[in-house]
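[09:14] KT: can someone run the structure on this one? pasting the chain below
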Amino acid sequence: MTGKGSAVGITDLAEDIGRSIEGLGSSVSEALFEPVIRLGVTGLSRAGKTVFITSLVANLLDRGRMPALTGAGRIRAAYLKPQPDDTVPRFDYEHHLACMTGPAPAWPEGTRAVSELRLSFRLQPSGMLGALYKPRTVHLDIVDYPGEWLLDLGLIEKSFEDWSAGVLDRLPGRPGSDAFLQTLDEIDLYARFSETAAKALAESFTEHLIAAREAGFSDCSPGRFLLPGEMAGSPVLTFAPIPPASYPRDSLGREMERRFDAYKREVVKPFFRDHFARIDRQVVLVDVLGAIHAGPAALEDLRQSMAAILTAFRPGVPGFLLTLLGAKRVERILFAATKADHLHHIQHAKLTAITEALLREAKDRASFAGAETAAMSLASLRTTTEDIIPHSGEDLPAVRGRLADGRSVALYPGELPADPAELLTPARDGAEEWLDADFGLMNFAPAPGVLRPGEGPPHIRIDRAAEFLIGDKL
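[09:31] RB: done, structure tokens below
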């Protein structure tokens, strides 16, 4: 028995050493010859991750709309190559671009799992002697993953008792919370474990999470409850928060704790190890306008969620030796407020200021750890044109776009405050609604059009986002 165990251990160790050497060789090759930038793209539901990636790639392939990307002139060629991770689904760029553009465009389906795409550049070296050197290759690996899964990374350091207490504290008043709390009250957590009772609790809790997400709340973890994929119905997704107590062995309450620990071990940690920990540039897309429209509680929930998300990052700049050895740290983080095309351009600076103030805690934490951070407002696919609406003797700066039914409408969404505190303070103080403002929002559809040769889809500030994220590598 001992001999067999030792043989297995030695075999495993040999395999680990082999993988480490292989990984080291790959890291050295990438660092010295063909650098790889791993760009993570995430955001909570409806933030526009799929549209952002599609537009970014299309505009890097055809750079006619990228004046702020200073290295665009050094790109001799840009082309899509097979991704390096054979077990990760490819981001379906061609399908998403076809959905977004053409005579009858529509929004592509949102992110439901991890996917990846490699975009490679042939770059002409810069400087007076640049023309004497051969072009070099830089790879951009874009990793798309649901923001709901990112929130789960905050669970790694939490005990079941701490997580349950936090969730139950913030439940009152949230959509679907009353039904879950009633289910929780009716079930005997001290009784011997029953799969039927566990399933009833988990389903009721999941219904609450779905309702909260639909109402505009951001912190709806565990994220796999919303996007279970192949894990739907498995024990690792069949638990719920319960009042902290000393539950007896073999009880329902004790099994809830065991399954929470299994969720962290079998779901959250592998995601961090296999995908997230390898990222060195990151975009966090934030639907700030949607949260404002949903009300003060949703805006405060977004602020707290973004602060929690930053605890999952490992920000900072790794040294050259650490890079060769495969150590990754997030060097640059862009916080981007999406759907800027829902506002007239004169309000974009206000949206950016609100975003910066909303994410102040998250940005400060990342900057202190050595990461370079930025915040901006953008639109991955511009769906509107600007208009002026006369109203009560005033000219209101509006936008005009197409709805899903084909109608063209003009929208004045309301005036964002110049001082972000006018929104953030009542949100922090628990206000139930905005007192002196009414913020409107419409779901505009993509505008029909034909892309001209050399141009990607129309956007707002995708070129500035690309300059911040990868401009130093071009």
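[09:33] KT: thanks! The longest strand covers residues 115-123.
[09:34] RB: yep, looked fine to me
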